[in-house]
Amino acid sequence: MKSIIDQQKIARRASLSNIASIGGLFALLVSVLIPLFYPGYMLVANLLLFGGLGISMVGIYFANRWVKKPRPEASLDAALKSLSNAHRLYHYPRLPCDHVLLAPNGVFVLETINLAGYFIYKRGRWREKMNVGRALRYIVEEHLGDPIKSARSSAQYLEERLSQITGEGSQVPVKALVVFSHPVAVIDITDAPIPVCKLDKLKKHLQMQAPRLDQGVYAQIAEYLDSSI
Questions:
Q1: pLDDT tens digits along 141-177
Q2: What are the φ/ψ torsions at residue 72 (nearest 5 degrees)?
Q3: What is the pTM of this model?
Q4: Residue ranges of the domains in the chain?
């Protein structure tokens, strides 16, 4: 399997996250020191206090996404490394989805959830069991949302886009999956409309009842996805 990712883009986002986190904390420190040395500048201290708090929380939120390990792209690469070279895994393309796998007979949209916790899907609704640690981190971590809805929406967009690129006569199957990539995530899934799994079960869901793509169509898709990185 070939993994395609713009490492410089990831590094830039990680650097900006760290800068925002550290900058916000520095502003908080200054807001505490100002009243001690310059009591007449309380307005400035208050502005720095609230501004620093907001900036640091934004920085921590994005650091959890772009810096914190295990990284979802690394976890996916490790889980799928034994696939053949005809499989191309794209990370963070300029598309509505973060991970796309081009296989010999179709395309998979992989909606990843990189959160620790206990997640339940039943009767068409998601629920998360909260513990103290997760509750304390909730404001600075990504939220679960509805990953099934996101994955299906992304798959529909990509299917329509690929039909424009390859021509209306070429049917390119696109399958959506939700993957919980954090090693300590626990999932309880009942009657999900698309596959929802952890990393260790991902490979068994990468199957399509579809013929192998025409080589020219495969090349067109690969070129389009390459250009999106």
A1: 888 999 999 999 999 999 999 999 887 667 889 999 9
A2: -60, -35
A3: 0.88
A4: 2-66, 72-227
